[in-house]
Specification:
Blueprint (H helix, E strand, L loop, with lengths): L6 H11 L7 H8 L7 H10 L5 H15 L18 H11 L3 H10 L8 E4 L6 H5 L5 H12 L4 H15 L13 E6 L6 H15 L3 E6 L3 H21 L9 H5 L6 H4 L18 E3 L31 H4 L4 E7 L2 H16 L8 E6 L11 H4 L11 H12 L3 E7 L3 H4 L14 E4 L6 E2 L22 H5 E3 L6 H26 L9 E7 L4 H17 L5 H22 L13 H11 L6 E4 L2 H6 L11 E7 L12 E6 L6 H6 L5 E2 L8 E4 L1 H23 L39 E7 L4 E3 L8 H15 L5 E6 L2 E10 L1 H10 L7 H16 L5 E7 L3 E2 L12 E3 L15 H11 L7 H6 L10 E10 L19 E8 L6 H4 E6 L13
Parallel strand pairs: 2-7, 2-8, 3-5, 3-6, 4-5, 6-7, 10-16, 11-13, 11-14, 12-13, 14-16, 21-24, 23-24
Antiparallel strand pairs: 1-8, 9-15, 17-26, 18-25, 19-20, 20-21, 22-23, 24-25
């Protein structure tokens, strides 16, 4: 099809205007060439008939996202105020400036919806240098990386999200041309297996564009992982022209020395190309100080070229005039004491020449909670006279590097941040993220721990099926302790699932689903003990060879597995992917799947040491070849190592540390094309431990989001130093991280306005006296409630008894109410928040809302003068609380206190609020739960109930008007030094 004559001009305009402001597109195009004759109708036809894969549509999408994000954007002013970024109002302003009709706007809203800016940043004040510099168009490496990702098939919205998140990091680094040297330390938190490398690749590209001239990437402790990172950066950032720079390529000798000779991506178009770099003013070359096959070596390596020659020696090296004329160096170094010592020695020679004082350096620490942290206890530090030996080896090397390089910026990356934020922030040479912390949003298409759990689902009011329950769809429970025969039978279940899912992948490949058959893997992780791995491998081999899946019996097993498991899940969760009508459609692919796994005559690889990773490097090189294998291992397969095509996981390893547990979850990641085939075989206790850690992480992210930003005076509501005490631990048996990594801090008061807070950590069911106390305190308020009202939100109506009570009455409730002794320290700051609201009369009265759900009861419950409604709600297993309040009950409570939402009319009329329109209300949501003593509590049979068999649960919310600083309060303090001994207590 011949492209329209105006296509090139419209693409040129979109590319240029994306950095500036939108303008009437039809008029601008016709202004370039009046013969174009572009009309709104022609443009609308084009937009309606093309997808986002079209080059013009892709540029338009990227421009929309850039204008969505622009801040400030005075051109977006609708009245006196500009439309905020990432809002429908901003997008409407863009369409108006572009002169787009409602027809075009409707189509683009469907194709390119507004992407909410979801990364959360906790930061000190910083100098806004980067935004101004970037506006000059100095973004050579970033633009090429952006184009590379688009060519790989990344959507414009995903690239835009990466752009925003990486900019949030770079802008908080020090200006490389800054006159006075300044260091910053930050932390970026992603999700396990979620693509953190893409973020720091973007950060490096932008940092080099901005003037950073030495980038050091610290990888894990294994050479194979270092090489993976090196290859990724070479491929996506360094590029062809830099990789071959200075090489004599006229003969064949260079082929023997070149890293990527014979690499399929090099021979194809898999490596980014930068064109003629030298023809672009001010763009540095990237010189590698490490290669694919070699970690950092001493002075004979590429870093010997690090003799920066300033164009103007009268000016500092970091002056813009000099930065524009010197090259950038990249070193990808594993966390090894000997290797880091070599790097420090060579950098020391620069220090003697004073160059190191002027070189802008960026240090990226991947998996920054591994090896990088100083885990020496404060008690032991106090006994060591030699200051240089008071740190662990890797931490000491990083600290020395930060100390000797005054312009070094440190950015750690991790998916398990608890250890990092517990670093002592008073230690100036350590790596506490004292300047900023960025949490990355959950990526589109990512399958994480939340996708294997059913959080806050109330199965008493919702049918539990494989369509609604993640656990039922993806998790297959296995027993914790089994004899040999049962263990083999259980292993066979997992192996059969591995083969069947592989056959379904091949079935889908034949029906046009590309890429899913390249890798197909199963992970068996039972122990960290190497001695047990070979036993496990032999069991897997024995089960594999003794129960052939291609035999008649094997095919019968797979047929039963399809009928009883995969057919139901695929039908509910395939999301438009091809699904076999019956097992007969899959059967022809079973033999092919079996053959692929047996291509090397052994279905199993044992990977439990660095030497194993090196020995099997080729077999585990997912970039070089297809991998269909069962992997058996422990620690070496549980951090940093990406198991491509992972579909079946058989996991028995338990641990007492949450971060270790989460890193072991290799089944998290991207499963495009086969998400419905993923299965996790796991014991229930370990599964519940994962859920507890998930809650810890999500609670942490939620708290950070609530306290993000600055107050009216420009001061941050939350600084990184205040983060440690925000972290909750939901399962006492699974610690957040190693005790040696915990820093002592505590919150004294904590609260958020406008959002209800469940205070559900109550005494256990056998603490009869405490339960009675709580019940009678709550009953005193419930006895004041009147007739049933009908409250609603989003068409979910429910009956409730309500009343209004005073601050003194609520304060009496909070002062007398008792929580579980193991959680009282965690709840005390939240309770103090509501107590102070009452004491300071920051609300006028409190609305008590008692939803009339559950079983009706007898008015003879002692202390309760009105008919009881008791809810059957389970306590969370191994936890000290109940599942959360119901969303349809929370929303009306929040509406009643929120000044921006009309008070429920029936509630307003019942309590004569129309006569007092300025009254500020808080709200308390109450449930009475049937919770009799004893481990095997019976269901309620009806009739009278005793107070000791009832647990009273309360949730509370106050309006924004009651709380200054954008409705947030967070007060904290560091514990006294003499409290540090608590760190070492077992």
């Amino acid at each position: 099809m011949t492209p329209p004559p105006w296509q090139d001009d419209i693409e040129t305009l979109l590319a240029g205007d994306a950095k500036k402001k939108p303008r009437d597109l039809v008029r601008a195009v016709n202004g370039l060439d009046e013969d174009h004759g572009l009309t709104d109708a022609l443009l609308a036809d084009y937009i309606e008939s093309h997808s986002l894969n079209d080059s013009t549509m892709n540029l338009l999408h990227r421009a929309l996202l850039a204008w969505d994000d622009q801040n400030p954007a005075p051109w977006a002013a609708a009245t006196a105020e500009e439309a905020a970024p990432h809002t429908p109002e901003r997008r409407a302003a863009i369409y108006a400036k572009l002169g787009f009709s409602d027809r075009i706007a409707e189509r683009l809203n469907a194709l390119c919806p507004v992407v909410e800016h979801r990364d959360v940043v906790i930061s000190k004040r910083f100098e806004p240098w980067y935004d101004a510099q970037r506006s000059t168009g100095n973004d050579f490496y970033w633009k090429h990386y952006e184009q590379y990702l688009a060519r790989k098939g990344w959507g414009a919205d995903v690239i835009a999200s990466l752009d925003i998140a990486s900019t949030d990091v770079v802008r908080r680094l020090s200006d490389p041309a800054r006159h006075e040297a300044k260091k910053t330390r930050g932390l970026v938190i992603g999700y396990v297996q979620s693509g953190k490398t893409a973020n720091f690749t973007g950060v490096i590209a932008k940092a080099i564009d901005a003037g950073y001239r030495l980038v050091i990437v610290l990888t894990g402790t294994v050479e194979m992982l270092r090489a993976q990172t090196q290859r990724r950066l070479d491929k996506e950032l360094v590029g062809r022209e830099n990789l071959t720079f200075g090489m004599d390529m006229t003969g064949e000798a260079w082929l023997n020395e070149f890293d990527y000779t014979g690499d399929k991506d090099w021979d194809g178009d898999g490596f980014v190309s930068h064109g003629d770099i030298d023809s672009v003013p001010g763009v540095p070359r990237i010189i590698r100080a490490t290669t694919l096959g070699k970690d950092y070596q001493r002075i004979k390596s590429e870093l010997s070229k690090l003799q920066y020659r300033a164009a103007n020696r009268a000016l500092p090296l970091n002056h813009p005039e000099n930065l524009s004329s010197i090259d950038a160096y990249l070193a990808v170094v594993k966390k090894n004491g000997t290797t880091l010592k070599k790097l420090l020695q060579d950098l020391g020679s620069l220090k003697q020449g004073r160059l190191l004082n002027e070189v802008p350096i960026l240090i990226i620490d991947d998996e920054s909670d591994q090896a990088s942290l100083d885990t020496t206890s404060p008690r032991r530090k106090a006994t060591i006279a030699d200051e240089g030996k008071r740190r662990t080896a890797i931490n000491r090397a990083i600290s020395q590097l930060l100390k000797m390089a005054p312009r070094a910026q440190y950015v750690g990356y991790t998916a398990t941040p608890f250890a990092n934020v517990f670093v002592d922030p008073t230690d100036e040479q350590d790596i506490f993220p004292s300047d900023f912390l960025v949490t990355l949003p959950r990526p589109s298409g990512y399958m994480g721990v939340a996708d294997f759990h059913d959080l806050e689902r109330d199965w008493s009011v919702e049918e539990r099926t494989v369509a609604t329950s993640n656990r039922d769809a993806f998790v297959r429970e296995i027993e914790a302790d089994l004899d040999a025969a049962d263990l083999e039978a259980e292993t066979l279940r997992a192996i059969d699932a591995f083969v069947l899912s592989g056959a379904i992948k091949l079935f889908r490949t034949d029906r046009g689903v590309s890429g899913i058959d390249l890798h197909h893997t199963m992970l068996v992780h039972e122990s960290v003990k190497k001695a047990l791995h070979e036993d496990t491998a032999q069991r897997v081999r024995s089960v594999w060879s003794g129960n052939s899946v291609t035999s008649a019996a094997g095919l019968d097993r797979l047929r039963a597995l399809w009928d009883g498991d995969f057919a139901r899940v695929c039908s509910a969760r395939a999301d438009g992917l091809p699904v076999p009508q019956d097992f007969d459609e899959i059967a022809p692919y079973v033999g092919q799947a079996h053959a692929r796994v047996m291509a090397d005559n052994d279905p199993v690889l044992v990977v439990n040491s660095d030497s194993d990773l090196d020995r099997y490097r080729k077999k585990l090189d997912f970039d070089a070849q297809a991998v269909w294998r069962i992997l058996v291992g422990g620690t070496k397969l549980s951090r940093g190592f990406t198991v491509e095509g992972l579909t079946i996981s058989y996991f028995r390893r338990s641990t007492g540390q949450g971060d270790t547990l989460m890193q072991a979850g290799r089944w998290f990641g991207y499963r495009e094309g086969y998400r419905d085939l993923v299965r996790l075989f796991i014991p229930s206790d370990i599964y519940e431990a994962f859920e507890a850690v998930l809650r810890d992480e999500e609670a942490f992210r939620d708290e950070l989001e609530k306290y993000e930003g600055f107050n009216e005076d420009g001061e941050p509501l939350l600084t990184p130093q205040a983060i440690p005490p925000l972290i909750a631990q939901h399962l006492p048996t699974v610690k957040l991280t190693a005790r040696s990594k915990m820093w002592n801090a505590e919150i004294t008061e904590q609260g958020i306005a406008g959002t209800i807070r469940d205070l559900y950590s109550v005494p256990d069911r056998n603490a009869v006296q405490l339960k009675n106390t709580n019940f009678h305190l709550v009953a005193d308020l419930l006895n004041l409630t009147g007739n049933e009202l009908h409250l609603s939100r989003d068409r979910n109506a429910f009956a409730a008894r309500t009343t209004l009570v005073t601050n003194d009455q609520v304060l009496g409730l909070l002062n007398g109410y008792r929580w579980h002794p193991e959680t009282v320290d965690q709840l005390r700051p939240q309770v103090r928040f509501f107590q102070n609201i009452c004491r300071q009369h920051r609300v006028d009265r409190w609305a008590v809302i008692w939803p009339q759900v559950g079983e009706g009861g007898s008015p003879t419950v002692a202390g309760l003068a009105v008919p009881a409604r008791l809810v059957n709600r389970e306590r969370r297993r191994n936890r000290k609380d109940f599942s959360g309040s119901d969303a349809k009950h929370r929303k009306p409570a929040e509406d009643i206190v929120n000044a921006t939402v009309d008070v429920e009319p029936e509630f307003q009329a019942a309590h004569s609020l129309s006569a007092r329109p300025d009254e500020v209300l808080g709200a308390i949501l109450v449930y009475l739960v049937w919770d009799p003593a004893g481990a095997d509590a019976p269901e309620r049979a009806g009739g009278a109930a005793e107070p000791e068999d009832i647990t009273a649960l309360i949730s509370m919310v106050v309006p924004n008007a009651a709380v200054p600083d954008r409705g947030r309060i967070l007060l904290w303090r560091r514990r006294q030094d003499d409290d540090l001994a608590a760190i070492d207590t077992p």
